[in-house]
Amino acid sequence: MYLSRADLKQLDEQKVLSLSRQQKDVLLCRLLSDLQEAHDRLSANSHTSSRPPSSDAPWAVAGVGDASDEERAEASEAIADEDASGEPDTASTAEANSSAADEPAKRRPGRQPGAKGHSRTLSLPISATLVHRPESCVVCGQALEPEAFIASTGLYVLDIECETGAGLIGLRVRHDKHLYGTITCECGHLNHSAPGRCPQEGLWENVSLSEWHLVGPTLASLIVCLAHRLHLSRRRSQEFLRDWLGIELSTATLTHCLMEAGRAVEPVEEQLVEELRQASLVYVDETGWKEWGQKLWLWVISTSTLCVYFIGYRSSEILDNVFEQGFSGWLMSDGYKVYRQFEKRLRCWAHLLRKAHGLRESVNPRARHFGQTSHTLLKDLMKAIYRAREGPQPASDLSLQYAAKLDAFRLLCEQHYDCAHEKTRALAREFLNDWEAIWIVLSHPHLPLTNNEAERALRHWVIARRISHGTRTPEGSRALGLLASVIETCRKRAILPWPYLAQVIAERRKGNPAPPLPASAV
Question: Is pTM, for the whole model, over 0.90?
Answer without folding.
Answer: no
